[in-house]
């Protein structure tokens, strides 16, 4: 079994199997053992944990996970990587289950039941940049029992997840992540730590899941519809952004009235509202909509 986490062994495995990187899968393999150890430490993986890894690649980080966790489930979309994982890089571990599937189509709740008796799992992943948001939101919105999600993503995306209102990077992703978890950037990772080398630097961010959300709303879907509408045209005022949003069915007068009740300016934009204020706005607009239909 090749011990991965360095360029020499990674190249040897790739050449052995004549592996060709698939751009459509956003494949960039880590070749820095120091960074790998820091990711495992950041995730807090221990011998009691069941870990879901998304996109193991050739098994570089998976080896470290198998050595530290009780159970590891690795979901890999590229079928050409499965023989490498099963026959070579992970063949000596007895606590790994490899699933050849698109993570967005996997029933993770079933995995949690079978592998961890329905108890919260930890997710650790080096995510392809192009699909970061759908994977994170899919995990949250499916209400899988989660302890934490520790992921490597594009540095700018990681920073966007943890910023607060009033900043240029603040948006729908910031609010969604912070509704479900407490985000914290754990370390930055230079582009040179990957093969092939990406065009941008990365960061490891840990999302520690809330037991209960920090705000309470009657209609979670409506709140996120409002948030998305507020940032779809972020330079518009909330009154215009929400009032013109297709499918939201909110009148400008209702938004204006809600903002007045909240003591906020009629010219305020979505980027100025906190998660708590979006929750209050959701309740007010939800009641206004019920009144108009009564």
Backbone structural class: alpha/beta
Task: Return the domain count.
Answer: 2
Count of alpha/pi helices = 12
Name the CATH class of the largest domain: Alpha Beta
Principal-axes shape call: elongated
Give the neighbour order of strands across the main sheet: 4-3-2-5-6-9-7
CATH architecture of the largest domain: 3-Layer(aba) Sandwich
Strand content: 15-25%
What distance separates the N and C termini? 68 Å
Give the % helix: 40-55%
- Characterize the largest beta sheet: strand count, sense, and whether it forms a barrel: 7 strands, mixed
CATH third-level topology of the largest domain? Rossmann fold
Order of helices and strands: HEHEHEHEHEHEHHEEEHHHH
- DSSP summary, beta strand count: 9
- Cα radius of gyration in angstroms: 22 Å
Would you tell me the overall average pLDDT? 94
- The residue ranges in which pLDDT falls below 50 over 5 or more consecutive positions are none
Please, what is the CATH homologous superfamily of the largest domain?
Answer: Vaccinia Virus protein VP39
Write structural notes for this entry.
By secondary structure, this protein is an alpha/beta fold. It folds into two domains: 7-209, Rossmann fold; 220-293, Helicase, Ruva Protein, domain 3 (Orthogonal Bundle). It contains twelve helices and nine strands. The chain has helices spanning 7-16, 33-43, 60-68, 82-89, 108-116, 132-141, 155-162, 172-180, 220-232, 238-243, 252-261, 275-293; strands at residues 29-30, 50-54, 71-76, 96-100, 121-126, 146-154, 181-189, 194-195, 202-209. The strands form two sheets. A seven-stranded mixed β-sheet has the order 4-3-2-5-6-9-7, with helices on both faces. Helix 4 (82-89) links the parallel strand 3 (71-76) and strand 4 (96-100). The radius of gyration is 22 Å and the shape is elongated. The model has no long low-confidence stretch (mean pLDDT 94).
